[in-house]
Design a protein that fits this description.
Blueprint: H1 2-6, H2 16-21, H3 30-41, H4 54-63, H5 67-83, H6 87-97, H7 108-142, E1 151-155, E2 168-179, E3 182-189, E4 192-194, E5 204-205, H8 212-215, E6 224-225, H9 227-235, H10 255-259
Parallel strand pairs: 4-6
Antiparallel strand pairs: 1-2, 1-5, 2-3, 3-4
Length: 278
């Protein structure tokens, strides 16, 4: 519980104790330090025994009290009375000084909760703005102007590849166009021209890499494919949606034949049929 109340949240840079009560947690209380010092300086007094010398012992104890000890005791009582502050009184006085006019019908707890909510909202917005600023700065550093024939790569999504497949798709820029002040690029792979257009921020520059086959590729004879199809062809990805045919997959009732893709052995469940498109 002590760790929870004194731990500092990274977003608001405050501890839960400070958020609720409006003051620092009392981890270094001066009163306890004074008590520890007083106990270490004064030795423990043996308890009195029931004998004939009991009254002189008490008188000796009283007489041994020096003015310095009395002054220390008075200081401890003053410090203890000063440190005994009610949290609600402290918060109410703070609200009065800040000039916040409270409604008579509205309870004090509602104002306290509103203050915590407003503080949390302000910290959340500041954190969101800082993250947006870092993203814009990082994106601006990655922006650059590419030319036709440059080699770049696109990130392959995890759903379009296997665990051992490549995570990037090498592409060649074949065209560029400006739209609303932004430059969009059309790219091509070894298997076709991608229909979608991309901004320069999604590219990773591979100009210094050696892709001789891709550099000398003639894109005039290539057909258009989607980005997902290009990724699946490059990574040899096979969909988990199987045809489950009981025949030779020679008709359009087969899902694989209808979509123009090849079947594989798991799609037939070991029925013993010879597939014509495997």
């Amino acid at each position: 519980m002590f760790y929870i109340n004194t731990s500092v949240a990274r977003t608001i840079n405050q501890s839960p104790f400070e958020v609720v009560f409006g003051q620092q947690p009392r981890t270094n209380d001066y009163t306890w330090k004074c008590i520890v010092v007083h106990l270490t300086e004064d030795p423990l007094i043996d308890p009195p025994t029931n004998n004939s010398n009991e009254e002189p012992i008490c008188s000796n104890i009283v007489s041994t009290t020096t003015p310095q000890d009395r002054q220390i005791q008075n200081n401890e009582e003053e410090i203890r009375s000063d440190s005994n502050i009610d949290h609600e009184e402290f918060i109410d006085s703070t609200n009065c000084v800040s000039g916040v006019v409270e409604s008579k019908d509205e309870p004090v707890g509602a104002n306290r909760h509103n203050r915590i909510r407003e503080n949390a909202e302000e910290c959340y917005l500041n954190n969101a703005n800082s993250q947006l600023t870092r993203y814009i700065n990082k994106s601006s550093k990655r922006q650059r102007i590419y030319h036709v024939g440059d080699i770049v790569d696109l990130k392959v999504s995890d759903v379009n590849r296997t665990n051992t497949s490549s995570t990037i798709l090498p592409c060649k820029i074949v065209d560029s166009k400006c739209q609303d002040g932004e430059t969009f690029y059309n790219v091509a792979t070894m298997n076709g021209i991608i229909k979608e257009s991309f901004q320069s921020t999604v590219f990773l520059d591979l100009t210094a890499s050696n892709f001789t086959t891709l550099r000398t590729l003639n894109t005039d004879s290539l057909s258009c494919v989607t980005f997902i199809q290009a990724c699946q062809i490059y990574t040899n990805f096979k969909s988990a949606d199987t045809c489950k045919c009981n025949g030779d997959c020679s008709t359009n009732r087969c899902k694989c034949k209808k979509k123009g893709r090849k079947c594989y052995s798991k799609g037939h469940g070991g029925a013993g049929f010879i597939c014509k498109i495997c």
